[in-house]
Design brief:
It is a single chain. A seven-stranded mixed β-sheet has the order 15-16-17-14-13-19-20, sandwiched between helices. It has about 475 residues and is an alpha/beta fold. It has helices at about 40-55, 65-80, 85-95, 100-120, 155-170, 185-195, 210-220, 230-245, 265-280, 300-310, 330-345, 380-385, 400-405, 420-430, 465-470; strands spanning about 5, 10, 15, 20-25, 35-40, 125-130, 135-145, 145-150, 175-180, 205-210, 225-230, 250, 260, 290-295, 350-355, 370-375, 390-395, 410, 415-420, 440, 455, 460, 470-475. The protein has two domains: about 5-255 and about 460-475, Aldehyde Dehydrogenase, Chain A, domain 1, CATH 3.40.605.10; about 260-445, Aldehyde Dehydrogenase, Chain A, domain 2 (3-Layer(aba) Sandwich). The protein starts with a strand and ends in a 5-residue tail after the last strand. Helix content is about 40%, strand content about 20%. It catalyses: an aldehyde + NAD(+) + H2O = a carboxylate + NADH + 2 H(+).
Length: about 475
């Protein structure tokens, strides 16, 4: 059954869109129509920003107590948990996320992020006294940033929105959420939840739109801060606009993360731990660790172990609980991934497994899990973000070279090391210029601590205290002396 939506959630109400344009949501598995929803235009953006502006400038939300804000955030989290399977199934249907990932990595992780912000608010010092010049005592006050725009991608739609939503609500800011056109239905479910928890009108609006309306949102004079997750190319554009307008922004962008296997790595532990960090969400993750660096003398051993493990992964219908690798989100994405695979072969990398389309799937935008060996770090498959199920194995000679290769990237988002000596792994991790780095773990981030990247992986941090502070301004109240 095809879902049809004809309203947008703006200002605490379900309203008819400004124009008649619509977005068609296509199943990446069946290539059939899943839903039709309104496409917001600049008129809808104006209406959403105006509602958020009123809610911030005239409404009670910025002045509510941290305790009350935390209670609202917890209520949103509880409602997500209560509808977790419905949300996960929706994400699977609209953008093809494997069911297990959609439930754990997108839905329950979103609730945990919100719970984390609620707990953080409980103990956060929004006001503190500090000694000032001349013996006076000043007050340093954290004020909400104002009206924020949250622009989310399609790959982990609820989780990425939750990082922005939790921080904005915790700070006392108001928010306009812009869902990706490939995954708008998740936004509708979130809007239903927001509508049920008693938020004042206009505190959060949810629209779905493509690039034209997204740029109108970023440029809007009523927006004080932009938080964007997506490609580095679009991030540059948004950063330029925000810089021109002196508008605060957080940018979480691309990645080409490296996992380093040291001489003493135990493959029986490392390979199963590494695979989710590579192939989560069918490789459609900015944090995917798609470069595996291995000692040259262990190269063939590691490649053989990876080949066997990848060969055992179930590929197919994302609604099947056993599926590990599903389809890519769109035909254009499959075409891009196939082009990079072709480039890898053309540049001399050894194609060990995959590289084509699954023979048993005659429809859907699938690419086989693909393994390259003997990769040089100057090849395109080692430098460009593939955003698909493609893994490159790079040999190194000595740990210094491993660190050099890991750092020889335009990006710096995630990474890991696998070793029998944890302290040594920690020391090595501090040499790798990346926002998150795990020791003997496939964890690509920590839900309670800052997440973001070095270099072209972005600006600023989400999650944790730093994520909350990104939605706050700092004010100093100076009393008279004496």
């Amino acid at each position: 059954m095809t879902i049809t939506k004809d309203t947008l959630y703006i200002g605490g109400e379900w309203v008819h869109p400004h124009s008649s344009r619509t977005i068609s949501v296509i199943s990446p598995h069946t290539e059939e129509l899943v839903a039709t929803v309104p496409e917001a235009d600049s008129g809808d953006v104006d209406r959403a920003v105006a509602a958020a502006r009123r809610a911030f400038d005239e409404g009670p939300w910025p002045h509510t107590s941290p305790k009350d804000r935390a209670e609202v955030i917890r209520a949103i989290s509880a409602a997500i948990k209560a509808r977790a399977q419905e949300i996960a199934d929706t994400t699977t249907a609209e953008m093809g996320a494997p069911r297990s990932f959609a439930l754990a990595g997108n839905t329950y992780a979103s609730a945990l992020v919100l719970d984390g912000f609620a707990t953080l608010v409980d103990g956060f010092a929004f006001e503190e006294e500090r000694p000032g010049f001349g013996g006076r005592t000043c007050q340093v006050v954290k004020q909400p940033v104002g009206v924020a725009a949250a622009i989310a991608p399609w790959n982990v739609p609820l989780f990425i929105i939750a990082m922005k939503l939790g921080a904005a609500l915790a700070a006392g800011a108001t928010l306009v959420i812009k869902s990706a056109p490939e995954a708008p239905l998740t936004g509708y479910l979130l809007a239903e939840i927001l509508d049920s928890v008693g938020l004042p009108p206009g505190v959060v609006s949810v629209i779905a739109a493509d690039r034209e309306a997204s740029e109108a949102l970023v440029r809007h004079p009523g927006i004080d801060k932009v938080s964007f997750t997506g490609s580095t190319a679009v991030g540059r554009r948004i950063g330029a606009i925000c810089g021109e307008q002196l508008k605060r922004c957080t940018l979480e962008l691309g990645g080409k993360s490296a996992s380093i296997l040291l001489d003493d790595a135990d493959l029986a532990t490392a390979i199963p731990g590494l695979l989710p960090a590579v192939f989560m969400n069918s490789g459609q993750a900015c944090v995917a660790q798609t470069r595996v660096l291995v000692p040259r003398h262990r190269h063939d051993e590691v490649v053989a172990a990876l080949d066997a493990a990848i060969g055992a992964l179930k590929v197919g219908d994302p609604a099947d609980p056993e599926t590990f690798v599903g389809p890519l989100v769109a035909e254009r994405q499959r075409t891009r991934v196939e082009g990079l695979i072709e480039a890898g072969v053309g540049e001399g990398a050894q194609l060990v497994r995959g590289g084509g389309r699954p023979a048993d799937l005659d429809r859907g935008w699938y690419v086989e899990p693909t393994l390259f060996a003997g990769v040089d770090n100057q090849m395109r498959i080692a430098r460009e973000e593939v955003f698909g199920p493609v893994l490159a194995v790079l040999p190194y000679d000595g740990e210094d070279e491993a660190v050099r290769i890991a750092n020889d990237s335009d990006y710096g988002l995630s990474g890991s090391v696998w070793t029998g000596d944890v302290e040594h792994g920690i020391a090595l991790g501090k040499r790798v210029r990346t926002g998150s780095f795990a020791i003997n773990s496939g964890a690509v981030l920590d839900l309670l601590n800052p997440f973001g990247g070095f270099k072209q992986s972005g600006l600023g941090r989400e999650l944790g205290r730093e994520g909350l502070e990104a939605y706050l301004e700092t004010q100093t109240i100076i009393p008279p002396v004496g």
